[in-house]
Amino acid sequence: MSLLLLDTASLYFRAFYGVPDTLSSPRGEPVNAIRGLLDTIAFLVTEHRPTRLVACWDDDWRPAWRVELIPSYKAHRVEALGAGPNGGDVEVVPEGLVPQVPVIASVLEALGIARVGCPGYEADDVIGTLVARETARGDVAEPVSIMTGDRDLFQLVDDAHQVRVLYPARGVRDPDVVDQARLADKYGVPTGAAYADMAVLRGDPSDGLPGVAGIGEKTAAGLLARFGTLAGVLAARDSGFGLTLAQQRRLTEGAAYLEVAPRVVQVARDAPLPDLDDALPRAAAFPEALDALTDRWGLRSTVSRVLAALAG
Known about the structure:
alpha/beta, six-stranded mixed sheet, two-stranded antiparallel ribbon, 46% helix
C-alpha cells in the first residue's frame, strides 16, 4: 500500500518543454503536454505500483498571502497584462500550453484519477497538507512518494514517516530518490525541515526570494549544522555568540526578510482540502467521456498505455 502525489503543473510544464510540439490533435492543436503527462502517469503507476494516487493542482500559483509577506515572490512570472479574471495575477504560460491544461483535467476526471486543488493555495501546499494528513494517521499511515521537479518539496522528506521525493533530474524515468541520506549527501542538511531552513537563508531567485545577502547554500548548511535550526541561528545572531562579525552583520541586515520568509518558504500543512477518494482506479470511471476525449484530441495510444497501467 502506498500513496503517490503528483505535482501536476511541474510535470505538465516539463512535458510541454520536453516532448516535441509536433505532436498534435486531429485538428492540428498541440497535445505534447497532455501526452507527456499521461505517459508519465502510465510509467509511474507501472514502475511504482501505488495503491493511491492524487494529481495535486495549482488553484492559485501565487497566493496573495505570500505576496503580502514578500512582494517579489514569483513577481518575474507575472504577465504584464495584470490581473486575471478572478482578480489574481496572470501567470506567464506558453501559448501552446494554455489550452492543454483543461484537457488534462478532463482526461484525469474521465480516468477516475483524483485531482485536488484549493483556492488561495499552491499545489505545494496541497501536497504538504495531504502528507500531513497521511502522517497523522500514525501506525496506519502508508509510504508517500512525491513526484515533482520542484526542490521546494524536499522539505517534506521524512524517513520516520516514509515520505520521499522523486525528483526528475535525469528525467521522469530515472528520478533521484530524495530521502534524508540524499539531503545530507547533496545539501549537507539532515532533514526536510532543515532543508526548508536552509532555503530561507539561501533564498531562491527562481521564486523571487532574495535570501540573506552573502549567505549561500554551503554557508547556510554550515550554520544549521552548528546551531541546529533557523531559530538557533537567529538566537546566535541576537546573542552575538558563535558567528563571525560578517555573518552576524548579514543576518542582522536581513532581519526583516527573515521575519517573514519562513511562512513563505514552508508549505502549508493545513489547507482546507475536501475529503477525496484517492484509490487508484483499475478502469476508466467514465469510459464514454474518455473515448470522446481520446478521439477529439488524438490520444488513443497514450490513453491505452494509462489504462493498461491502471489495470496492472
